[in-house]
Structure prediction request, 165 residues.
Amino acid sequence: MPIAPLVANAGPPEGWIPVNMVNILYVEPEAQVLDVELLETPVEVRATPVSYHWDLGDGNTINTDKPGEPYPSEQVSSEYTYEGWYDITLTTTFEGEFSVNGGEWQPIDGTIEVASEPIEIFAKSFESRLVNPEVPVDEEKAPYVPERTPDTEGPKDPEARHREI
Prediction:
């Protein structure tokens, strides 16, 4: 039975984040109930998310049983040290239960891991520069983010670590 991947959320919706700025990671942890019929008997299968593995694309990973929360929470978060494009991937572990013909829920042995769609994010380095005071600043304009190419891929973090939250 297909378990739908959860929708992972990371970084600002614009798809880029400043280097060394907190990157908020979260997911809406919803149980999924699947209805089937076996031998003309209705059976429900419930898959409940119980843990989350975040791969940040730079060598850093996070394992947690917390789904995280949207900004301003930093319950599950990370930072990028280097400029470049990264893919953030989430793998959710689900536990299962079943109910036959509306009866009590019973556990299913084992778990299943389901990968979510990767999130592309660009970590952008900023520098202070002198500017022409005669030219107005467009505060609505996002900073330049390069096209994703092999040359703009972010490097691995040589101090990458695995965290448990």
Notes: The domain at 8-154 is CATH 2.60.40.10 (Immunoglobulin-like). The radius of gyration is 21 Å. The chain has no helices and eleven strands.
